[in-house]
Amino acid sequence: MILDFFQHRDIKRFVFILFCITILFWQKIIVFHEIISPQPIIPADKILNSFTGSNIYLLAFAKVLLLLICSYAFIIILSVHNVLPNRKYLAVVLFLSVVSVFIDGQNIVNNLFALFFHLFAFYNLFSTYRSDNVKSHVFIAAFLTGISIMFSFPFVVAIINLLTALLIFGIITRRTIISVILGLITPFVFLLYFFRLAYHDVSSMLHAIKNNFDNLFFITFDFDDFTPFFMGFVFLVTCFSILKISNSKHTKSVQKMTDQIFYFTVITSAFITIFVSGLKPYGIMFFGISAAYLITRFSQLVRRERIAEIIVFMILIAAIVYNNYTLLF
Questions:
Q1: Measured between alpha carbons, how far is 276 from 10 in angstroms, rounded to an integer?
Q2: Torsional class of 54: left (φ above 0), alpha (ψ -120 to 50), beta (otherwise)
Q3: CB distance 86 to 300 below 8 Å
C-alpha cells in the first residue's frame, strides 16, 4: 500500500513531500539559528538573512523552499536515462527521513545550496553516457562542484566522487581530467575577480579558504544515543539492498553504472560521517541520497513488497519520532 502510493505522479506526492519536510525539519529550520564555524567562502545564510531581515518565519519559508528545490533536483537526476523509472518520490521521502536525523541547525542553508549545485553536477555526469560532448559535460560538472565547495567546504570530497564516476563510466582520460581541473578552478577565478573589483581586496576570500581548509578535520558534530542505531539500521538495509541489486539483471548498462556509483558513495559517505568530523556535512547528505536510491531500487526488485513496505515505514516513523520527540513524549 505504501509503495503503491509512489507509483504515479500527481499533486499527492508533492503534498506528501511538503508534509514530510514540515514534520521532519520544523524544529531545525525554525528553532535553531545558523552558526557558522568556520565561515564558508560564500556565506549563504548571511545573504539570506539580509533578504529576509532575519524574520524567523521568512527564514523558515526560505529553508523549506530550499529543501523542496533540492528534493526535486534529486528527482531530476534520477530521471536521467530513466535510471529509476518508478517511485522517484519514495527515494526523496527516504532521503528527507535519513538526512533529518543527522543534520542540525548549523549551516543548513549553506549545505542545501551546496547540495543543489552538486546534484546538478551529478546530472551532467550522467549525461556523459553515450554523449558526443563528454568534455563539455565533465567541465560543467566540475564547475558546479566548485560552486558547491564555495557554499560548504566539506563538499571538497565530492572531487573524489567526480573522478570515481568518470572511471565507472569509462571516460577518464587526460582530456577529461584537464576538464575537471579547469572546471574546479574556474568558479574560484571568477570569485577572485569579483572580490578584486568589488572590494579591491582578495585577502578575505583567501583567508576564508585557508580557514576552511585548516579546520576541515576539527569541526565536531556530536551524535546522541539514537543516531548510531538509526544509521546502523539504514546502513544494514542498504547493504542488503546492494546484494539484491548486484544479483539482478540490468536491462541497461547505464543502470548498472549508476548503481555502482551509489555503491561507492554510500560506503564512503558512511565512513566520512562516522570518522571524519569536518566532512560530516557532505557525508550526511550523500549517505541519505545513496541509501534512499539503493533502498528504492531494492523495493522495485524484491518479490515480496511487504518487506520493502515495512522497511520504508520503519525508517519514516523512526525519523518522525526522533525529530518530534519533545512533542510526543
A1: 40
A2: left
A3: yes
Residue 256 in this model has a pLDDT that exceeds 70? yes
pTM above 0.85, yes or no: yes
* Residues 13/312, Cβ–Cβ less than 8 Å: no
Is the peptide bond prior to 187 cis by the omega test (within 30 degrees of 0)? no
CA atoms of 10 and 148, how far apart (whole Å): 31
Q: What is the phi-psi region of residue 32: left when phi exceeds 0, alpha when psi lies from -120 to 50, beta otherwise?
A: beta
CA distance 96 to 67: 9
The grid coordinates of residue 252 equal: 541497461
C-alpha cell at 324: 518530534
User: What is the biggest distance separating any 2 CA atoms in the chain, rounded to whole angstroms?
Assistant: 64
Residue 159 grid cell: 572531487
Number of structural domains found in the chain: 1
Write out the residue range of the structural domain in which residue 98 sits. Answer: 2-328
Burial 2-22 (b: 16+ CB within 10 A, else e): bbeebeeeeeebeeebeebbe
Q: What is the pLDDT of residue 283?
A: 87
Measuring CA to CA, how many Å separate 300 from each of 98, 248, 307? Answer: 19, 11, 11
Evaluated on CA atoms 96, 100, 104, 105, the torsion sign reads positive
Q: Which amino acid is at 201?
A: D
